[in-house]
């Protein structure tokens, strides 16, 4: 009888970033600015209160397999859906995903989706505590842009319509709640 390959694979752990527990040194997602952010700037961004970071590792291994960051952001009401414009406020609070990245050798194996589901669940919890109308992110433009764009569109993200950030997308928190609720 063939061995159960799922039993052989270490469990995936997604935990809040801890410099002492997460080894970032060998991480590469194939996009230099994100790799540099993780290795060189992440600790400062956390210390300054700009983001929180969540790291994926395999059980028993400190090497970072993937990560995402969350932060606060406001967007102009006029950029989003009509109900934002009717809200009578100039800015709409949202949760900003600054970065999501998966180590190159782990790409295409579902880790990006697992990270996004985890991020969306955390965003729902945050929105229930402080209020946030949507999750927003910027789709990075490089040679993998079309694949990345399709990934976010398949998750339900849509263009925000920001002329200064033409690849900024959002998903209403109500849609996240309906999907994961």
Q: Which strand order does the major sheet show?
A: 1-2-3-4-5-7-6
CATH class wording: Alpha Beta
CATH superfamily caption:
Gcn5-related N-acetyltransferase (GNAT)
Helix/strand/pairing class, anyone?
A: alpha+beta
**Which spans of ≥5 residues are poorly predicted at pLDDT below 50?**
none
User: If classified by CATH, what would the architecture be?
Assistant: 3-Layer(aba) Sandwich
- Could you give a short account of the major beta sheet? 7 strands, mixed
What does this structure look like?
Helix content is 35%, strand content 26%. The chain has a 7-stranded mixed beta sheet, sandwiched between helices. The chain has a single domain, classed as Aminopeptidase (3-Layer(aba) Sandwich). The chain has helices at residues 5-8, 32-47, 82-85, 111-130, 145-155, 173-180, and strands at residues 12-16, 52-58, 66-76, 91-102, 134-138, 158-159, 168-172. A hairpin with an 8-residue loop joins strand 6 (158-159) and strand 7 (168-172). It is built from 6 helices and 7 strands; from the N terminus they run H-E-H-E-E-H-E-H-E-H-E-E-H. Helix 4 crosses helix 6. The longest helix has 20 residues, at 111-130. By secondary structure, it is of the alpha+beta class. It is globular.
């Amino acid at each position: 009888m063939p061995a159960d390959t799922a039993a052989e694979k270490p469990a995936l752990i997604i935990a809040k970033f801890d410099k002492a527990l997460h080894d970032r040194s060998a991480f590469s997602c194939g996009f230099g600015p994100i790799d540099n952010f993780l290795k060189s700037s992440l600790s400062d961004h956390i210390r300054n209160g700009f983001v929180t970071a969540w790291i994926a590792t395999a059980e028993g291994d400190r090497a970072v397999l993937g990560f995402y960051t969350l932060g606060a952001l406001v967007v102009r009401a006029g950029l989003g859906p009509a109900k934002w414009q009717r809200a009578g406020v100039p800015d709409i609070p949202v949760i900003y995903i600054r970065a999501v990245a998966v180590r190159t050798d782990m790409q295409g194996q579902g880790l990006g989706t697992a990270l996004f589901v985890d991020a969306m669940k955390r965003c729902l919890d945050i929105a229930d505590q402080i209020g946030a109308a949507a999750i927003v992110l910027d789709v990075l433009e490089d040679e993998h842009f079309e694949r990345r764009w399709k990934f976010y569109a398949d998750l339900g993200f849509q263009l925000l319509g920001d002329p200064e950030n033409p690849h900024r997308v959002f998903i209403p928190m109500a849609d996240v709640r309906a999907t994961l609720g």
